[in-house]
């Protein structure tokens, strides 16, 4: 874990509802600045819901969420300013198919930075260099492999040099080699740039080895928060079920917890 005691993201007594149903409740969580944190858990347990709350897409029913010491804003202008400091790597990449890789990476710069075209081109090539895709600058998304497309989306997420990177299931649809490349790349960026990185994933074996902190979401709340070594060593039945991939155990695989009446 990085030595800095500064907190990039803090959740305090957070409850998150969707469609009149409580998805997550009682969330207390600190993500240190400069750390790489894995948020793990079975599919459908609320990991992406947590990500939506951090970005301000979903307003908590209860509690508080702070990003770099300031509560997540509720106004459109406040959210826009906060989101300039967030890089988001979407599960489906979100690349525009009629634009080249370089044009996709340039999109955030055109939208949020008033820079000459020469500076935009320079930054785009720097970001593509960082993910090993400079030679693919003029290709279209349909010409990329799954791993290349994920790296192109990562380059776009880094275009504005955000101090916080949020990755929603970055290994979905990738083979083991491409998965390893993506996780090693995220770790290198985390270490060389001092980037705080939150990785939402259910791919335990590929994700844990490169992270400083592990959080397990299950049964409507935080089931574990600590180091990857402590998670691996735990004898908690719920954690063992998840780590071992057992069908039987205390984790509810029917989805989110039962609906609760609004307080």
TrEMBL record:
Limits of the ABC transporter domain: 9-244
InterPro entries assigned to the protein according to its UniProt record, in alphabetical order: AAA+_ATPase, ABC_transporter-like_ATP-bd, ABC_transporter-like_CS, P-loop_NTPase
Pfam families: ABC_tran
UniProt keyword ATP-binding, yes or no: yes
One MF term in the entry's GO annotations: ATP binding
Entry keywords, A to Z: ATP-binding, Nucleotide-binding, Transport
Name of this protein: ATP-binding cassette domain-containing protein
Organism: Thermomonas brevis
């Amino acid at each position: 874990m990085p030595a800095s005691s500064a907190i990039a993201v803090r959740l305090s007594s957070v409850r998150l509802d969707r469609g009149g149903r409580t998805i997550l409740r009682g969330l207390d969580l600190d993500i240190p600045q400069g750390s790489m944190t894995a948020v793990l858990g079975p599919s459908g347990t609320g990991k992406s819901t947590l990500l939506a709350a951090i970005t301000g897409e979903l307003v908590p029913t209860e509690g508080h969420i702070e990003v770099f010491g300031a509560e997540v804003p509720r106004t459109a202008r406040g959210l826009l300013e906060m989101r300039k400091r967030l890089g988001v790597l979407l599960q489906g990449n979100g690349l525009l198919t009629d634009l080249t890789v370089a044009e996709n990476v340039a999109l955030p710069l055109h939208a949020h930075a008033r820079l000459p075209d020469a500076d935009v081109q320079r930054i785009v090539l720097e970001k593509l260099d960082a993910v090993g895709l400079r030679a693919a600058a003029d290709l279209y998304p349909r010409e990329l492999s799954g791993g290349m497309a994920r790296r192109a989306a990562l380059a776009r997420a880094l275009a504005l040099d955000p101090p916080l990177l949020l990755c929603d299931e970055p290994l979905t649809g990738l083979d083991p080699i491409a998965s390893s490349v993506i996780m090693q790349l995220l770790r290198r960026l985390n270490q060389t740039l001092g980037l705080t990185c939150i990785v939402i994933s259910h791919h335990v074996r590929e994700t844990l080895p490169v992270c400083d902190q592990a959080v397990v979401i299950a049964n409507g709340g935080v089931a574990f928060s600590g180091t990857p070594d402590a998670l691996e060593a735990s004898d908690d039945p719920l954690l063992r079920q998840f780590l071992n991939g057992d069908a039987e155990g205390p984790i509810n695989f029917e989805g989110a917890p039962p609906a609760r009446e609004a307080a």
